[in-house]
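User: quick one - fold this with ME8 bound?
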Amino acid sequence: MTSSYYVTTPIYYVNGAPHIGHAYTSIAADVLARFLRLDGRDVFFLTGTDEHGQKVEKAAAEAGVDPQTFADRVSADFRDMAARMGVSNDDFIRTTEQRHRDACAAFWQVLRDRGDIYLGAYEGWYAVRDEAFYDEDELTQRADGTRIAPSGAPVEWVREPSYFFRLSRYQDKLLAHYAANPDFILPAGRRNEVVSFVRGGLQDLSVSRTSFRWGIPVPGDPAHVMYVWLDALLNYLTATGWPDPAAPRARYWPADLHVVGKEIVRFHAVYWPAFLMAAGVALPRRVYSHGWWTVEGEKMSKSLGNVIDPRELADTYGLDALRYFLLREVPFGNDGDFSRRALVTRLNVELANDLGNLAQRTLSLIARNCAGRLPARAVPTEADATLLDAAAALPAALRARMERPAFGEALEEVWRVIRAANAYIDHQAPWALRRTDPARMAAVLRVLADVLRVIATVLQPFMPDSMARMLDQLGVPTEGAASRSFVGLAAPLAEGTALPPPAGVFPRFVEPGA
Ligand code: ME8
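Assistant: Sure. Structure tokens for the protein plus ME8:
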């Protein structure tokens, strides 16, 4: 296993404002990036914006501004969204940047030189909303005769000169790659869909357009702009400094994981590996396709007016509660429904009650009965050892879950220990031991403090701010020997460490006016 790890989000179209779906993908990738850093890996985490193509050109025209001005504005909004979601990306790429134009031109040249690009004419269906070409047999016809893509996007008939990529050459190679790398596309259900799509036969792909201007010009033939998906996918290479093998980030290629929504799997798991094979560039190790969120039972859409700005949710419920909810509510890969009520329930039950109260009870007993100083470790009883062992097993258990990644399962592992710790505190009743056996009370509180330290440490990637506060209250130093990372857990905290006064980390959410 390499120590470096490269994870990406899709680059988002700048045709409209960021919403909860974009936040979801970015938060998921962020949790993984933070987890791996905590585990000592050298992580490169990339996000950014996809700024060319007809769809953006159209949105800019509707807004009455030129595409670059429009892209600048919306891209800045996506950058702001990422920052407000606590997304710890190492770079933010924009496809209108010069570094990207250069990489695209270089890549095109390689495909040309290798004989995988030829000039022809495209005639067929195109959906601007998806920026995708569709075969006749993929479409459904409405009563009024208009045709609709499987995504629900309207299609239009396009007829124009076009360069083609010899995708048809790669059918067998792709199938061989999927077979040899069963985890290349996850989850498995999505892999099966891709495999049957590719088995169904691949036609050469139109990779340039001439009917509009907002794109990267084709080298040597500026009447054409590159197909926006070729341009967009290449962002993942651009950010590593490709084609310069001496670029500081060249070591990160191939990417370890592309996190994408299920609607763009075909681009990432068919076109993208075929382009890379054609160029003789190593393939990414995995494409993980997550499901789609609806909002309060409905598909998000501008016309329904139910598009949620994740920043508003973070302001209302707290960023960490939002991050936790999104990764806890549905298994990664499944569709889910976002509802405020479900979020509040998880916040109040799982965060405020299960975890917050456990910490609050432990820390206030230490504050009151141990003069606010961390008690010494004692020889563990069987009950102590069982709980301590369960906590100690968490880093490895999470590592196994995050490898896919399975965020919900990782959280369930942690909650198993939280529930065990709550059962332990109820059973041991340290508040009663205060009079009968103060030494045992101190030992029990120390076990709980140690268990809470592990819990807060492994939960940092999910809830960075609140877990930092919890670690502060537990007296875990911020400096020295990566004390808040997994390796830091090997060094016990010194007995007698003075703890700051306890303060609740997850206040219960009470509906305004309730
Ligand atoms: O497709 N539920 O950009 P995009 C969950 N530019 N995730 C959602 C979602 C929802 N309802 N809506 C959006 C593009 N997403 C291209 C990508 S990559 C080289 C180019 C998330 O702005 C999900 O990750 O339409 C989805 O794949 C992405 O946003 C699409 O963003």
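One thing worth noting: Residues 10-13, 21-22, 24-25, 50, 232-233, 235, 260-261, 263-264, 292-293, 300 surround ME8 (CB under 6 Å).
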